Amino acid sequence: MKRILTTALFFCASVTGFSAHALEGETIEELRAVQLYSQDALIEMINANTHLDKVVADRCQLVQDIEARANVLKVPAYQFLWGDMLAWGVCVDAEPARGIGYMEDAANQGLPAALEQLGRYYAKGTLVQQDKSRAVVYLREAAALKNLKAQIHLVELFLEGYGSPYDYEDAYHWLYNSVTNDKKQHQKIASYLARLEKLMHPKAVREAKRPLDS
Hints:
Helix 7 packs across helix 8 (112-124), helix 9 (132-144) packs antiparallel against helix 10 and helix 10 packs parallel to helix 12. The chain has a domain at 37-109. The protein has 214 residues and is an all-alpha fold. The protein has helices at residues 7-15, 28-32, 39-47, 51-57, 63-71, 76-88, 96-108, 112-124, 132-144, 148-159, 168-176, 183-197, 202-208.
């Protein structure tokens, strides 16, 4: 028969890295299902866009822990997660302005996913006013950090006429050296490279086809 957690067990769970915010009557086995995410695990979830689903699947029990790691410890991945939760009202009341602020904090610490998402939001006018010039700035930073989604979005903006032609070579270089097992994405990349190539000097194209880090 499952034993109900006592106050002491709540404390022990917190010390050993589990959430101390279990629901009343929850068992040890159920509490173990909501162990706090490591930064690496959280980044993997963010890159797969499953981070908000995970918070909901964990029955919103980690809200206070997530907020603390974002607000007090200032862990970039948790700043992004907390910002996304606030932006869309996941397990908390929606506060889009605060959410964007936390995403910006994560971006300022160099988290590629935060840079990419802010760039995408400004490109599309999601939550913020559409500003494609600002989108280019965010996406270029994320693209330089090898974020494939940012590399693709950046070239899309270049093909629409935004950004500087001086950046075409870098964008081509990053996307040319990208790796993906998604056939549709692979075809899209090939198409974008062919279109961008037409806007570039042949010498710049040759330079852009060099291997990464060379």
